[in-house]
Structures
1.
Amino acid sequence: MPASTRSRPLPLAVALAAAMIAASPARAASSRPATQAELLQQLMQKVDALAAENKRLEDKVEKLQAAQAEQARQTQAQVAETQSQGQQIRAQGQAVQAATAQAQQATQATEAAQAAVATASSTAQRAGWAASTTVSSYGEIGYSRPGKEVAAFNQHVG
């Protein structure tokens, strides 16, 4: 605490002393009269007690301020760590998006290759079928016109 607040009990002590001196004629009427020296002694004891209490409260305030500063520093460290983690998560998200895009491109390329293979396979099958199929002059598949020799034709008539 500032030095100005530490010296405050002194004006308070003066005010208390003035109040006690002003109240002394009223005390004179009581059974035991108090002397000014006794009154000043009592006031000094009260001022000392107030100064000790003020010192104790100042120490308590300093401890609380130190604890508050430590807590603020910890909070700032947590905020910085949270921001760092957020940046890492964003970077991981971007990496996942890039990997997903690459996987989609690879899938599309695979689908295109599979379609090309299917087309080539179909064309090859048709070409193979056409090459192995005999067509006679009559336009019939797998029929050959009987000739003079019976063993030369492939159809059994019977």
2.
Amino acid sequence: MGILVAALTAGAFALLSLTAVQAQDQKKPTGAQLADAHAKVEIAAGLVALGRANEDPMMLLVAARLLADLDAGVVDPASAAGDRTTYDVADILDEARSFATGDQALLDRIAAVPDMRGERRGERAYCLWEYECAATGCDYYYNCHYDD
């Protein structure tokens, strides 16, 4: 009886371990997913810059929707060098609201965008789209930071 319990316990532990490994692997994006996300990051960053410069709430709305759909934060290239301040979707939506005064239909669309990202507590890693400039130019790159 003791051997059977030990064998069942070991089997259950192995199954849980395998499931945990598979869950971690599913979180890793494929090359195609990264390429798609990179395009969204570039478009969103451009729309934020243009929306702010032109005080255009529609550009900010589209940028916020793109950023809200991403699984990783996006560093704001306007943040100070070495600072990894990410775009805050709620702040972008607030800016869009301030530019959309009097347009109730647009305000309703802004209100429909989710502005909070899920809590990241308990994860062993967090990933960001970081922005870096080198001699060849500036670009976003996907970078994951692991907690020890």
3.
Amino acid sequence: MLDRFNYFRCIVGFRRWIRIPRCRDLLLYLALVVLPGCHHSRVASSAPPVAPASATTPDLLADSIALIQVKQVHGDALQRGSPVDMLVELRYTLAARDRAFLTLSLEQFPIRETCASSLEGGSVAVVLTPVMKEIPIVRGTHALEIPITWPGDTGEGTNGRVFGAGTISFRAAMRIDRPNYQFLTRNFGTEYCVRF
């Protein structure tokens, strides 16, 4: 009988204790700390820690194109009138579709200081695209090496138009053909810009 009486006193005491604000707050705090998966310095988390996303890691859920490197097959300097063979290495992620096309364009700019089509004062530079290659691609992240030849500012591929001096760079795009829609474009003027 004494045990039942003490048990009853305990329950009544607990109910009174819950009504006291400080005790109620303490009880809530203890319940939060003891919950499974709660991250507390003394309680292990149920999930392993997540490493922060790197700025160079492509998002595997988004379409992307990255320029890895450009190798010139012979020599280092570009000279007008001398075609140059290059090997362009790209990494792409195609996530939104199963199949698409990747287009790589060699762009030629008339100014030796920049590979940008917009200039100071709001004017726009004429950009020539003497060479363009298109490759079918599939879902996932893949690396490509694409051979491309700069015609040497000879007018080939530009209807005879030449600059005499300037810079070259690359632009890559992803597109689908039904309907014909270009859904991603990357200009590589900041990663690769070479004078001729």
4.
Amino acid sequence: MPRPGVTWIMQHGNAAVQENIGWWEGMGRVAGRGYTDVVGDRRGWGATFRQLEQQAAVYHFPFTSPVMEFDNLNQAAGPIHSAQLMRVGLLFESISLQVRRVDVWAGESRLFTTGPINLSGNFRTPWRFFDASPFVPNVFDVVPAATFLSPLNISVIVFAPNEGNIRFIQVGALIRYSA
């Protein structure tokens, strides 16, 4: 369990999983490469997915986020420590596709949603995660902070007005841990 304080937990873009993998017809092949319409194109820097025109897709990023401390496999050690979601960030690049919503889940509970947004362009710069400015469009404050006791999942809803690619670099969550 992290010490009390604030920390960013990050997940690499290669963790992205398209929700309807294997059966959905709304995906295309990245640069014509086989099976990239099913699993995306994964490289060292992240994952690229191609969506067909007028299609929406949901991408999930699971996190390992410690929320409880155990002294052995059967018994909790003292009080449960509190974990609070404070901010969410998404590093991606897409010229023709639009990020329409970002949701954060803890188990089956939705902790946060951006509501309707419309982001496209180059949002690849890591320092943007740490910028406290309200003018950074790919970083979202969670107000009030949301307490959770299950591992996190960030879901990104993307719409394709025209056929195109989205490249996921990284997602992150700012977490406050307290005793």
